Amino acid sequence: MAQSLAKEFTKGLWAEVPPFRLVLGLCPVLAVTKTVENGIGMGIATTFVLVFSNLLVSLLRNVIPSKVRIACYIVIIATFVTIVEFLTQAFAYPLFLALGIFIPLIVVNCVVLGRAEAFASKNTPLMSIADGLGIGIGFTLSLAALAAVREFLGAGTITIWGGTPVFEMGSSFHPFTFMVEAPGAFVALGLMLAVMNLIPSK
Amino acid sequence: MREMINMIVVLTALTAVSGGLLAGIKTGTEERIERQIFQYQLAPAMNDIFGEVTNDPAKEKFELESAGVKYKFFPAKMEDGSKAVAFETKGKGGYGGDVGLMVGINLDTDAIVAARVTTHAETPGLGARAKDDPAFVSQFDGKTMDAKLGLKNDGGEIDAMSGATITSVAVTNAAEQAQAIYRELKPEILKLIQ
User: Which of A121, A135, A142, A140 is nearest to A10 (CA)?
Assistant: First the structure.
């Protein structure tokens, strides 16, 4: 039991890490990874939604009629997304401004609905939490990694939390601004996918 | 038939619980969110509008009602000694809901000091330019209470932002609303400030 719990948790960190292995949920991955701070914030928000929607879908898996299951999942997911929206507004307003429209868009993130449909609706609550937590943390780390590459090359800084960079290149560094623009996100993601594919997943 | 009833019952129960939960959380966080909005949206907007002031507008704020809606007024004493007041209106018809506009009006000359967009959910790079690039809202600077603050297409004096007409309409709606509220409430504002 404990072993399979750990297995469900760790698969999200490497073998099934959403943006790179499953290539799912790319919209926020491309849009908010201008700074590491935004990436981590988005990752935490998504993890929160994933864990709680997985838990609820799993608890209600025998109650929800299969014909309206997608509608039920969306109601559950949308509820938690709205909670996240209220909470970021109340406690992390600058992050709410930076993420803007992408917080409500977590509702349509295929990673969240995908885990509800493919995993939580068939497994016990405990397993589903482990799965949600693993996938969520994997998602957060991927966002942070991609954002670190983009922010480092594009702005010469690394900002982890609170808006002040923890690392800054000297004034002789010429930022490669292309990397923090939208097309740079595609290039950076492509290169990271290529590197990930060099390493076998199993 | 039983299956159908089951579907309706489950979905109804789920949405009802969800609605109740969200209503509870909304009331619970409302006050904090309002404070955060003041700190991160209204205060910087007011700073942009008035520049240096010699009083503390947040401390002296008061509320007045117009057409059933309460508005918060922030009185400001500007460096040149003239008195002004700032308040926020919500312009209907934005792409992502209402667009908030903070308008500062000089009480001596009845002219708009400046206006800034506050809360909005417009598209980044298009409608959101109304806030990020003050060129559009700076068209309101110095306009008096008789000025027509609609878009030029609608017979007003304001140029729309290219590629963001819907947002422009929402912002001018908010400005026109601010004009109407100021005209209606000016006697009361003056009484409260003296």
Answer: A135
Total domain count, chain A? 1
ipTM of the complex: 0.80
| Closest chain A CA to residue B39 | A93
Question: What would the DSSP string read from start to end of chain B?
Answer: -HHHHHHHHHHHHHHHHHHHHHHHHHHHHHHHHHHHHIIIIIHHHHHHHH-SBSS-TTTT-EEEEETTEEEEEEEEEBTTS-EEEEEEEEEEEETTEEEEEEEEEETTT--EEEEEE-S--PPTTTTTHHHH-TTTGGGGTT--TTS--SBGGGTSSBPPPTT-HHHHHHHHHHHHHHHHHHHHHHHHHHHHH-
Note whether B7 contacts A63, CB cutoff 8 Å.
no
Q: From first to last of its 194 residues, what are the pLDDT tens digits of chain B?
A: 888 999 999 999 999 999 999 999 999 999 999 889 888 888 888 888 888 777 877 777 887 877 788 888 888 888 777 888 888 899 888 888 899 999 989 888 888 888 999 888 887 778 888 888 888 888 988 888 888 888 888 888 888 888 888 999 999 999 998 988 888 888 888 888 76
Quick check: A89 and B35 in contact, CB under 8 A?
no
Look at A71 and B33 and tell me if their CB atoms are within 8 Å.
Answer: no
In chain A, whose CA is at the least distance from the CA of B32? A90
- A75 with B36: Cβ contact below 8 A: no
- Residues of B within 8 A of A105 (CB-CB) are none
Task: Please answer yes or no on whether A71 and B11 come within 8 Å at the CB atom.
Answer: yes
pTM above 0.95, yes or no: no
CB contact under 8 A, B14 and A89: no
Q: How near does any CA of chain A get to the CA of B61, in Å? A: 22
Q: Residue A100: what residue type?
A: G
Q: Is B16 on the interface with A (CB under 8 A)?
A: no
Residue with tokens 């994933």: A50
Comparing C-alpha atoms, which of A187, A152, A202, A122 is closest to residue A39?
Answer: A152
Cβ of B37 within 8 Å of Cβ of A93? The answer is yes
Tell me, yes or no, if B69 comes closer than 8 A to chain A by beta carbon: no
Pick from B1, B9, B10, B38 the residue to mutate for testing the A interface (most A CBs within 10 Å): B10
Range of the domain at A80: 2-198
